[in-house]
UniProtKB/TrEMBL annotation:
GO terms for biological process: GPI anchor biosynthetic process. It comes from the Eukaryota. Belongs to the glycosyltransferase 22 family. The keyword Membrane applies. The lineage of its organism: Eukaryota, Metazoa, Chordata, Craniata, Vertebrata. It is a multi-pass membrane protein. It holds the Pfam family Glyco_transf_22. Alpha-1,2-mannosyltransferase that catalyzes the transfer of the third mannose, via an alpha-1,2 bond, from a dolichol-phosphate-mannose (Dol-P-Man) to an alpha-D-Man-(1->6)-2-PEtn-alpha-D-Man-(1->4)-alpha-D-GlcN-(1->6)-(1-radyl,2-acyl-sn-glycero-3-phospho)-2-acyl-inositol intermediate to generate an alpha-D-Man-(1->2)-alpha-D-Man-(1->6)-2-PEtn-alpha-D-Man-(1->4)-alpha-D-GlcN-(1->6)-(1-radyl,2-acyl-sn-glycero-3-phospho)-2-acyl-inositol (also termed H6) and participates in the nineth step of the glycosylphosphatidylinositol-anchor biosynthesis. It comes from Acipenser ruthenus (Sterlet sturgeon). This is Mannosyltransferase. Its main location: endoplasmic reticulum. Keywords: Endoplasmic reticulum, Glycosyltransferase, Membrane, Transferase, Transmembrane, Transmembrane helix. It is found in: Endoplasmic reticulum membrane. One of its GO terms (molecular function) is alpha-1,2-mannosyltransferase activity.
Length: 256
């Protein structure tokens, strides 16, 4: 959603020569995007700073546009959270506390700084590049290509999210401050075979398929062989494997 809001906000952003520029409209959309997902501030901080720097009437921009929009948006957000949570709470502050100060997000894995350049950005750009080129060539028909992209996305995700029973390693963050907390993923990787044998003690509860990174194959091979699992597919994942993340993803199917 913050991507949609950012896209619309860019339409009203005061680029030089833009006919649609509107400070209040774009700032309202930016404020809404940041309220919904605080990390959106990373994208907008340099753009808003540049706008402030090149604006002739800086005081007017702050007092009559930025402050009213910011305070109104934050006020509405706080009021909505109060209604649904039953207490006064500043969600954006909690987001900063949990994800930055307590660094809880690291439980779900972390990447080196160059990951965004070597993998993140190329992957995102690669999937959107055909639509970007087509939209650039047919700018007056941008709504048609947008509709086509939306329909395609709905169809693909409707297929991917078909009702299949699956089990994943659980790694919920500890929000209680318990220093001895260990999530299920950590327990699993400390002794994968032992974990598998404990959760699948007999043939009747075995999963039909197992999906894992190739780095785990050698370690759990005794369990795979003993329970008649055979590798049926292999999918490329990354050029830069590290730690528990392998270059490829293996799909094993149990032969009965």
């Amino acid at each position: 959603m913050e991507t949609v809001l950012t896209t619309v906000a860019l339409y009203y952003y005061p680029f030089q020569g833009s006919k649609a520029q509107n400070s209040s409209k774009y700032l309202a959309l930016v404020a809404l995007a940041v309220v919904m997902r605080p990390t959106a501030v990373i994208v907008w901080l340099p753009l808003v700073s540049y706008h402030f720097w090149q604006e002739d009437t800086k005081l007017n921009l702050v007092l009559h546009h930025a402050m009213p929009v910011g305070l109104l948006t934050l006020g509405i957000s706080t009021l909505v959270d109060r209604v649904f949570s039953g207490k006064w709470i500043l969600v954006q502050l909690n987001f900063l506390k949990i994800n930055v100060l307590q660094n809880v997000a690291v439980l779900y894995g972390s990447h080196p700084w160059y990951w965004y350049l070597t993998q993140g950005f190329p992957v995102v750009l690669g999937t959107h590049l055909p639509f970007f080129i087509h939209g650039s060539m047919l700018a007056p028909k941008r709504y048609r290509i947008l509709l086509a992209a939306v329909i395609w996305t709905v169809l693909v995700y409707s297929h991917v999210h078909c009702p299949i029973t699956m089990q994943f390693l659980q790694c919920p963050p500890d929000l209680t401050g318990n220093k001895s907390y260990i999530d299920e993923a950590e327990i699993f990787f400390s002794d994968p075979v032992r974990w598998l044998e404990a959760h699948f003690p007999n043939q009747t509860v075995l999963s039909t398929h197992l999906v894992f990174f190739e780095v785990l194959e050698k370690e759990i091979s005794p369990f795979l062989e003993r329970n008649s699992y055979v590798k049926t597919s292999e999918f490329f994942h990354t050029h830069v494997p590290e730690g528990r993340v392998g270059r490829n993803i293996f799909l094993y199917e149990r032969q009965t």
